[in-house]
């Protein structure tokens, strides 16, 4: 029996442009916002190591597109790669298509050819593509030469790591959206004693939010220590 292809992928409601602490990545965030509104380049390529907020910007762009009255589709390729390239069928009709972690399908001939067709059809239709990857287009292990060329056609921007003060600001902002009180001392403790990439820190913050609600406790350093010992 043919594997069913999912038609919709959830967009994190907390990952908005307003909730994105840009720091040194203000240019990338502004470009993603223009892309979402159909005001920027036909192709935006954002790259950088894990944990710099690429997925956050993809989700934010989709939400911005919806609010601007445009259609949008978000494809996390780490999750949908197993469904095969048919998942791209008809995507050229979306005003915005976001392809997160494109390196996940690099080197796979069927995916590369389908993606090349999507690039051409989307461009001809006047629609927009937002692509994220761990490396710049020239370093992707893409076998199809024409696709590699297409990936470098648009605006290519690198995301840079956040300084600690930006990470702390981002954590405080995320905590506020969760309704969680995060003191500067607690924030600095998280930065000093936990994995430092923002994806891990935000995931831990949400985990601590659930834990404090369940225990009916405030978020304090002793509570965090106890929680981390419990899950170790």
Structure description:
- This protein is an alpha/beta fold.
- The chain is built from 9 helices and 5 strands.
- The protein has helices at residues 26-37, 54-67, 77-80, 109-124, 145-151, 164-178, 184-193, 198-215, 221-231; strands at residues 43-47, 72-76, 96-100, 128-133, 155-158.
- A 5-stranded parallel beta sheet has the order 2-3-4-1-5, with helices on both faces.
- The longest helix is centred in the C-terminal third of the chain and has 18 residues, at 198-215.
- It is elongated, with a radius of gyration of 19 Å.
Which geometry do the CA atoms define?
elongated
Q: How many strand elements? A: 5
User: Strand-and-helix sequence, N→C?
Assistant: HEHEHEHEHEHHHH
Unreliable sequence segments: 1-8
Strand arrangement across the biggest beta sheet: 2-3-4-1-5
Write the layout of secondary structure elements.
Blueprint: H1 26-37, E1 43-47, H2 54-67, E2 72-76, H3 77-80, E3 96-100, H4 109-124, E4 128-133, H5 145-151, E5 155-158, H6 164-178, H7 184-193, H8 198-215, H9 221-231
Parallel strand pairs: 1-4, 1-5, 2-3, 3-4
Please provide a brief summary of the model:
The protein contains 9 helices and 5 strands. The chain has helices at residues 26-37, 54-67, 77-80, 109-124, 145-151, 164-178, 184-193, 198-215, 221-231, and strands at residues 43-47, 72-76, 96-100, 128-133, 155-158.
Characteristic terms for this protein:
232 residues, alpha/beta, five-stranded parallel beta sheet, 5 strands, elongated
């Amino acid at each position: 029996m043919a594997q069913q292809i999912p038609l919709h992928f959830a967009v994190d409601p907390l990952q908005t442009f307003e909730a994105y602490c840009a720091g040194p990545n203000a240019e990338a965030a502004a470009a993603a916002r223009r892309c979402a509104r159909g005001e920027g380049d036909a192709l935006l390529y954002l790259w950088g190591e894990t944990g710099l907020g690429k997925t956050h910007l993809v989700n934010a762009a989709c939400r911005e597109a919806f609010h601007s009255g445009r259609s949008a589709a978000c494809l996390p390729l780490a999750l949908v790669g197993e469904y095969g390239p048919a998942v791209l069928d008809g995507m050229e009709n979306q005003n915005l298509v976001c392809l997160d972690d494109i390196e996940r399908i690099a080197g796979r001939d069927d995916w590369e050819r389908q993606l090349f067709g999507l690039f051409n059809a989307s461009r001809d239709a006047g629609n927009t593509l937002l692509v994220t990857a761990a490396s710049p287009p020239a370093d992707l292990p893409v076998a199809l030469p024409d696709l590699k060329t297409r990936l470098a056609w648009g605006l290519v921007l690198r995301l840079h790591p956040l300084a600690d003060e930006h990470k702390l600001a981002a954590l405080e902002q995320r905590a506020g959206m969760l309704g969680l009180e995060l003191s500067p001392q607690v924030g600095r403790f998280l930065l000093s004693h936990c994995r430092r990439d923002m994806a891990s820190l935000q995931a831990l913050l949400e985990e601590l939010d659930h834990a404090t609600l369940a225990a009916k406790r405030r978020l304090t350093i002793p509570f965090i220590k106890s929680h981390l010992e419990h899950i170790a």
